[in-house]
Amino acid sequence: MTGAQPEPLTKPLLRALRGERRRRPPWWLMRQAGRYLPEYRALRAQARDFVDFCLNPALAAEATLQPVRRFGMDAAIIFADILLVPQALGQKLTFGDDGPRLQPLDETPGIQGLRLEGAMSHLDPVCETIRRSRAALPDETALIGFAGAPWTVATYMVEGGGSRDFGRVKSWAYRDPSGFQALIDLLTEATIAYLSAQISAGAEVVQLFDSWAGVLPEEGFERWVIAPTRRITAALSEYFPAIPIIGFPRGAGLLYERYAIETGVSAVSLDTVVPKGFARERLQSRLAVQGNLDPVLLITGGETLERAVIELRTALGGGPFVFNLGHGVLPQTPPENVAMLAQLLSKPLD
Amino acid sequence: MTGAQPEPLTKPLLRALRGERRRRPPWWLMRQAGRYLPEYRALRAQARDFVDFCLNPALAAEATLQPVRRFGMDAAIIFADILLVPQALGQKLTFGDDGPRLQPLDETPGIQGLRLEGAMSHLDPVCETIRRSRAALPDETALIGFAGAPWTVATYMVEGGGSRDFGRVKSWAYRDPSGFQALIDLLTEATIAYLSAQISAGAEVVQLFDSWAGVLPEEGFERWVIAPTRRITAALSEYFPAIPIIGFPRGAGLLYERYAIETGVSAVSLDTVVPKGFARERLQSRLAVQGNLDPVLLITGGETLERAVIELRTALGGGPFVFNLGHGVLPQTPPENVAMLAQLLSKPLD
Q1: What confidence score (pLDDT) does residue B3 get?
Q2: β-strand partners of B321
Q3: What is the rounded end-to-end Cα distance, in angstroms, of chain A?
């Protein structure tokens, strides 16, 4: 495996992720490409279903670029979906009106029907999206690749979709931890291969989304969140030492600190409810932090948004910091409020 | 307002909540009366809809007693629903297959259509449920009353039901904090009146369910979780100094400690993901703790359940502790696993 040449650290996002304090924090937004943008909705109508859209490099690259063109974020994140990996491994995936559906994986036969071999070729279009996006981005804008973290992807694979209680996946994990570990191991391998391919294609940063990290008790968090994340960061840091890895253990609460210390990520992304004082004192003292404006504030807009942005910059702007949301942009967000945010972030605080 | 006479502290639950360490921890389970019990499903079929069921003291008292009769928990919790309060205040409530629906409250006219006056008479049947349940319970079994905490009830009132992003309620709260405060204040008053009535009718402990405490950033948590809870505990402690108040700020994560210290609750209920070491060192050193077995373990059963129960008792049994789940019993729980839990909890650890 050969790495992309490390980019000289001229891009603001890369500098912040490497621990540099910036007077104007670099920014991007989770789910910055998506339904709240009219140009995205028009583009989306060109593909039959969501999976086709994600695997069409022309459309996916255009979706990747749209928000940067409109708002000038410091980074683009490739337009894709964390469930492309289970699909690549052989699980049947459909997207309906109520979100993604996978044919749920059973405890028996477990991972028998899944194949890592050949899976990466299914994901080639994502690498092509990366090449096209990278070529089109302004010089100062970084390109972020991503994947779901093994635990989160496993929850979708076993539940078949979203879940309220995670009864199926936790039952399996609790009853047969070594059988479940085989699924986590497979996903860990797949994630390393997938992110390596993304980096080789031109991703300059990668983010691991562990959206359901917050539903596991500590022992499970150690085993299925921290341990596989550490394996992924160890492998990627060996192959691509210059590429920062952002970890996002959404909802980790009291376990955020262990995640930040023990996983080897370069930066930690904070959900909406992580207290800013805690983030500054316990996390930012050790690594770059990213986050964590409540996405609802982009619906609210106005002075409320302005005040919250100043508070967040004041709290975390004294150290290495990437301005972002604590969760994805909501579909009902007025684009003009994102424009206002861009304006607010365009200057040093005073 | 005159208080019920305090019960002499002979009941194990009351002793633990007052800070006493018990060799065998008292136990009960959130949602211990409910769909996983065949006798509940038979009883439920006797009322047309769920609201009618909750407001029928004969049926609701029987539902309250069923799990205690079968498993011998140390406490019964009255069968009711947190959304009876908005209904009593004048908001239209229906229960469908997809959960509760309220006619969503709008920012304007806000609380204008709601009335505290007369609301308590709508809740009289709940007090009658309490009188009947109390009269039928064994001498050593405590009776728990409850209410939703103001923030959580407000989320349902504004969203109209469950929510993924809490966009409506947070938008209102962020954009017009003083208008939203009027709703929180109304619910705080209603909760004080409602819990006072429950205690006067015979509830020996009350629990405040703040199920959505975990979606608020720190400033909102202070304002809409901690502050109203403190007002409720201050009022109840004045009227009924002997009645313990359990607070359950589900998902509060890094803010659990502030909740435990600042709200004035007698005991704090821990969700599934609160680390046991943190609970022992930072919370149990100050007040009784309750929780926090993962409800999925009651689906798993077997040695996995047994091991988890021993671990939890070992971790928290050295101080004031009420054994419970970290969330409600799941509908797909086999009752025989609850029987196994009862057996495991029937003796001191060694």
Answers
A1: 47
A2: B289
A3: 46
Using CA atoms, how far apart are residues B139 and B309, in angstroms rounded to an integer? 26
Cα separation of B172 and A201, whole Å?
A: 44
Determine the 3-state secondary structure of A322 from DSSP. strand
CA distance B193 to B198: 9
Q: Which of A138-142, B95-99, B292-296 has the lowest mean pLDDT?
A: B95-99
Q: Write the CA distances from A4 to B218, B229, B234, integer angstroms.
A: 41, 55, 62
Give me the percent of chain A exceeding a pLDDT of 70. 97
For residue B17, tell me if it sits in a domain.
no
Q: Flag whether pLDDT at B2 surpasses 60.
A: no
Q: What is the pLDDT of residue A8?
A: 56
| Residue range of the domain that includes A125 | 12-344
Coil vs helix vs strand at A222:
helix
Task: Tell whether ipTM is more than 0.90.
Answer: yes
Residue B290 lies in a domain: yes
Kind and range of the H or E run holding A4: none
Total residues belonging to chain A: 350
Average pLDDT over residues B256-281: 98
pTM of the model: 0.95
User: 3-class SS at B269?
Assistant: strand
The pLDDT of residue B95 is 82
Q: B196 vs B78, B142, B189, B205, CA distance in Å?
A: 15, 17, 11, 11
Query: Residues of B at the A interface (Cβ-Cβ below 8 Å)?
Result: 165-167, 170-171, 174-175, 214-218, 221, 251-256, 272-278, 294-297, 299-300, 302, 304, 308, 326-327, 330, 332
What CATH number does residue B70 fall under? 3.20.20.210
Per-residue DSSP letter, A91? -
**Contact residues on chain B for A256, CB-CB shorter than 8 A:** 254
Q: Best of B30, B98, B155, B165 to disrupt the A interface by mutation (most A CBs within 10 Å)?
A: B165
Q: Which residues have C-beta within 8 Å of that of residue B17, sequence separation ≥ 6?
A: B205, B244, B246, B266, B267, B288, B320, B322
CB pairs under 8 A between A and B: 105
Question: Which spans in chain B are helix H?
Answer: 12-17, 38-44, 50-54, 57-71, 84-89, 119-122, 124-136, 150-159, 167-175, 177-201, 218-220, 227-239, 256-262, 276-278, 297-300, 302-316, 335-344
Domain count, chain B: 1
Residue A237's alpha-carbon distances to A104, A196, A197, A284, in angstroms, are 33, 10, 14, 20
**Residue numbers in B near A296 (CB within 8 A):** 165-167, 170-171, 174
Dihedral, CA atoms, A54, A55, A59, A62, nearest 10 degrees?
70
Confidence of residue B108 (pLDDT cuts 50, 70, 90): confident
Q: Is residue B227 part of a domain?
A: yes
Question: Dihedral angle at the C-alpha atoms of A227, A228, A234, A235, nearest 10 degrees?
Answer: 160
Residue A350 forms part of a structural domain: no
Q: List, by residue number, the catalytic residues of A.
A: 31, 35, 44, 81, 156
Name the nearest CA neighbour of B103 among B111, B113, B91.
B91
C-alpha pair distances (Å), A114 with each of A117, A187, A274, A343: 9, 10, 37, 47
Q: What residue in A sits closest to B217 (Cα-Cα)? A: A273
What pLDDT was estimated at residue A2?
A: 44
